[in-house]
Design a protein that fits this description.
Order of helices and strands: HEEHEEEEEHE
Number of helices: 3
Helix content: 25-40%
Structural class: alpha+beta
Largest sheet: 4 strands, mixed
Shape: elongated
Length: 140
């Protein structure tokens, strides 16, 4: 593989022109990637508007005190060579038990899907079987 920086000025200009003419590759399901800045201070790229909406909701829940913290794109290693399931978010929800008023926490894993696939269904089932975590599907 050759880096653009290894090319001479004329060849580099020609390569840059050709790359620009090809344009960006359209995502498989027509989604648009967008940057999102969390109230926690980090910036993450959401793979779709639906995923960005999930991130916005989790931030709103943090501000309201119902989510302690959340992480984008957690990965769960699965059996096989270099196989993993990547969800969209992992969050720690806080709530209080009625009666005794005991503060509790619940971990939730979310995956935003405009279109669910067999591969995704299989991955969520494996995550549930291996880690005891039910991935909650977020749909349009």
């Amino acid at each position: 593989m050759v880096s653009l920086m290894q090319l001479g000025p004329a060849a580099r200009a020609q390569a840059v022109k050709q790359i620009g003419e090809q344009g960006a590759v359209k995502p498989k399901y027509g989604n648009k990637r967008v940057k999102f800045k969390s109230v926690q201070g980090f910036t993450v790229t959401a793979d779709s508007q639906l995923e960005k909406g999930l991130f916005e909701w989790l931030d709103q829940e943090m501000v309201a005190g119902r989510v302690k913290w959340w992480l984008p794109h957690p990965r769960f290693p699965l059996p096989g060579k270099r196989v993993s399931y990547s969800a969209d978010a992992l969050a720690v929800h806080t709530y209080t038990l009625e009666g005794p008023g005991v503060p509790m926490e619940r971990i939730a894993v979310y995956d935003a899907k405009g279109m669910d696939t067999q591969s995704s269904i299989r991955g969520r089932k494996q995550v549930a079987d291996l880690f005891g975590v039910e991935v909650e599907l977020v749909k349009r």
